[in-house]
């Protein structure tokens, strides 16, 4: 892809100025990666954009922001390239152009997902079953959610392969994965690379609030996913069917996961409302907010569903919760959710560039 596209050309202009200045050398991983280059092709800019965590520390430290004639705004320039790259690599491309830019599209996906679940509950009534299975059978749930999970993963795999080719990724070694996983788990780059914290919502003041909120969402999502996996193992491996007791493994994983997902999403929403939208991709603000709201709704409705066990509220709450999960899964390759996959790929590529040794 040529650099004559406006977003890539502007990012290249700003990166070249940063590369000459080098004041931010001790900041996040973007700058060491940037300073290794002498010129920047589209793949280089795509890699830097996806490596950027939008902590904004470089912007508040920069002497060349407006009103200087250079008018640098590197967080925004990289955010625009990052957004454009997700849309370009997506397969098929049309849903990405919709879900990356429109909060209304995310809301519509949620409404459709909930409607589909209410329809399934009204027309596919199981002959027998306990708990949730008295509303929707296990077979029906598998028939709905297995393809809704696997097909988006296949679409993401296609997008990641396109990304890997553009950024010049090579053979991945265990050391690369280890370094990338450490960065992802600790969210090292959300501390600005210096451990002081992020400038996302507090401008020139440092804060670890965004880092902690992201960690809560990440671990919450992983715990909820682990809860589902353990339930599947219990069902097929040990013939132990839902509903599960509070002290069972699915609940011990799922309840804390739901709490972390709900609290973390609420914190991210609050932080996003405090932050300056001009330092991100303004055209994607609404879709990003809708995505975080969907994440939080998924966690909250799961907790409410557990609390309502044995009551008449279960059918409605089940439809709302599973509708939210369905919308989350189906939009995964095309919404802000995909940023986790590309960021992990960028961290692996960065580890390759640093030539991590076994």
UniProtKB/TrEMBL annotation:
<feature type="transmembrane region" description="Helical">
    <location>
        <begin position="216"/>
        <end position="240"/>
    </location>
</feature>
<dbReference type="InterPro" id="IPR036197">
    <property type="entry name" value="NarG-like_sf"/>
</dbReference>
<feature type="transmembrane region" description="Helical">
    <location>
        <begin position="285"/>
        <end position="307"/>
    </location>
</feature>
<keyword id="KW-0812">Transmembrane</keyword>
<protein>
    <submittedName>
        <fullName>Tricarballylate utilization 4Fe-4S protein TcuB</fullName>
    </submittedName>
</protein>
<feature type="transmembrane region" description="Helical">
    <location>
        <begin position="313"/>
        <end position="334"/>
    </location>
</feature>
<keyword id="KW-1133">Transmembrane helix</keyword>
<feature type="transmembrane region" description="Helical">
    <location>
        <begin position="131"/>
        <end position="158"/>
    </location>
</feature>
<feature type="transmembrane region" description="Helical">
    <location>
        <begin position="252"/>
        <end position="273"/>
    </location>
</feature>
<dbReference type="InterPro" id="IPR012830">
    <property type="entry name" value="Citrate_utilization_prot_B"/>
</dbReference>
<keyword id="KW-0472">Membrane</keyword>
<feature type="transmembrane region" description="Helical">
    <location>
        <begin position="104"/>
        <end position="125"/>
    </location>
</feature>
């Amino acid at each position: 892809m040529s650099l004559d596209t406006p977003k890539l050309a502007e990012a290249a202009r700003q990166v070249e100025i940063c590369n000459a200045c080098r004041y931010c050398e001790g900041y996040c991983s973007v700058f060491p990666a940037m300073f290794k280059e002498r010129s920047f092709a589209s793949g280089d800019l795509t890699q830097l954009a996806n490596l950027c965590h939008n902590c904004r520390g470089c912007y508040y430290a920069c002497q060349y922001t407006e009103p200087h004639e250079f008018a640098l705004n590197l967080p925004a320039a990289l955010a625009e390239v990052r957004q454009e790259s997700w849309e370009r690599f997506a397969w098929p491309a049309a849903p990405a152009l919709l879900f990356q830019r429109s909060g209304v599209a995310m809301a519509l996906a949620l409404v459709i997902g909930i409607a589909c679940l209410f329809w399934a509950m009204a027309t596919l009534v199981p002959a027998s079953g306990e708990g949730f299975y008295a509303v929707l059978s296990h077979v029906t749930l598998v028939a709905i959610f297995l393809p809704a999970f696997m097909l988006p993963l296949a679409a993401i795999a296609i997008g990641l392969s396109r990304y890997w080719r553009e950024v010049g990724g090579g053979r991945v070694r265990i050391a690369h994965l280890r370094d990338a996983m450490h960065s992802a788990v600790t969210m090292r780059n959300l501390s600005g690379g210096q451990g002081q914290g992020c400038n996302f919502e507090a401008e020139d003041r440092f804060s670890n609030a965004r880092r902690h909120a992201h960690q809560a969402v990440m671990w919450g999502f992983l715990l909820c996913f682990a809860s589902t996996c353990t339930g599947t193992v219990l069902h097929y491996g040990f013939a132990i069917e839902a509903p599960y007791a509070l002290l069972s493994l699915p609940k011990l994983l799922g309840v804390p996961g739901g709490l972390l997902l709900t609290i973390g999403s609420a914190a991210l929403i609050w932080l996003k409302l405090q932050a300056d939208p001009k330092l991100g991709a303004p055209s994607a603000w609404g879709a990003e907010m809708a995505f975080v709201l969907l994440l939080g709704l998924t966690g909250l409705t799961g907790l409410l569903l557990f609390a309502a066990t044995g009551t008449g509220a279960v059918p409605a709450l089940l439809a709302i919760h599973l509708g939210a999960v369905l919308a989350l899964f189906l939009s995964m390759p095309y919404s802000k959710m995909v940023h986790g996959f590309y960021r992990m790929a960028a961290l692996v590529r960065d580890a390759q560039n640093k030539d991590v040794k076994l």
